[in-house]
Structure prediction request, 453 residues.
Amino acid sequence: MVRGASAAGLRTGRVVHGTGRRIRKATSAEGAGESGLAKLIELHALNSFGDMLITIALASTIFFSVPTGEARGRVGLYLLITMAPFALLAPVIGPLLDRLPHGRRAAMATSMLARAVLAWTMAGTVVGGGIALYPEALGVLVASKAYGVVRSVVVPRLLPSRLSLVKANSRVTLAGLLATFVGAPIGAGLHLIGPGWPLRGAFLVFVVGTLMAFHLPHKVDSAKGEQRAVLHADDQPHGHLHLHPQPPPKAQPKANLRTVGPSVILALRAVATLRWLVGFLVMFLAFLLRDDPIGGLQPTVALGLVAVAAGTGNALGSVLGSWLRTRRSETIVTAMLLVATLAAGAAALWYGVLTVVAVAAAAGMAASLGKLALDALIQRDVPESVRTSAFARSETLLQLSWVAGGALGITMPLNGALGLSVAAGVVGLVLLWTVRSLFRIGLRRRPATAKVA
Prediction:
């Protein structure tokens, strides 16, 4: 028995070691190991794993443990106490972090440490689901979004010469999705032990993440060559972009995203709408399928199918992101709006298992691929000296769009055809607006000429 146990342990160790080696080889490919991008990929995977554990713990307490009517009230309260303050804080997060170019590793580590402390605290309050759980959840949400903003800013600093920015972001995103898929069953298993155990697991994950953040390369904290994102563009059909550096401190205007160029604005508006759609579907379908499952399925089965479809679509969008290097990004974001509109319209007209699963997959893919297309446009049209600042500000706007969609989803009547018709109508209107803007600026036959005035 001792020999058998020893042999089994040895084989398990070899499997774990071999798996770790293959993962490290994949993350370090195409120069990512030398540039430090591989470390960021691994950190982001750990971040996504920990966030999934917290999500499972909160969902089991707020959503699954009570009847539908009460659950809707609890989630509404959750949105009010967490999302409303976050809607006020989100516009501040990007500009605030943008003022700390020398402390990005510390900012990421602080985000991890804050969530570790909050996860441990929530493990003691999650059982009762009391009011104290909500401000703690707000803290987790703000810390998570702050990490997301800093991560978007850090990627260009760690970009290998053999990778485009879009492909690097695609690789980081895909690693996070894979970690989420792994974390879901582990979190469910921990929940079987007790409602607080997923949060205790998240505590350990974020402690490790805190240490890993400080192992990122030192160039992450370098602000060499960077300027404030005070961007201006001529609204010309050819899309030439003129960018002005930061004026003297006394005359510095307020930075904003309104004048970064017509193509970037087109993509930002489109991707914000797709993020709105994702937030709407998450909240609306969660309650709709629990109250009125489709196809005679059990509520948990119906929700599981939709969740798997959304995750698969998101992963597919990340994989397809590598195509953006040879595709026109303006066309891609427009096509993603069209896909989302058609899927939502079909689900509204022929409400059923297949169409609901299809709209979840389409929304996940469209939001993921659209975000990568937006990244490509920022890379193409915004000079490197101000690119990191532009990433920080665009990310906060996209997070606010998700909040707006979720807020509408929680207040809509639980009628599948009505809710999906509203979603199709909103996305369809933005699609028409985007097509009109696309014809106004014209499809570029060559990259825009960018210069710093």
Remarks:
- The CA atoms of residues 276 and 404 lie 6 Å apart.
- The longest helix spans residues 68-98.
- The radius of gyration is 22 Å.
- The beta strands are 241-243, 450-452.
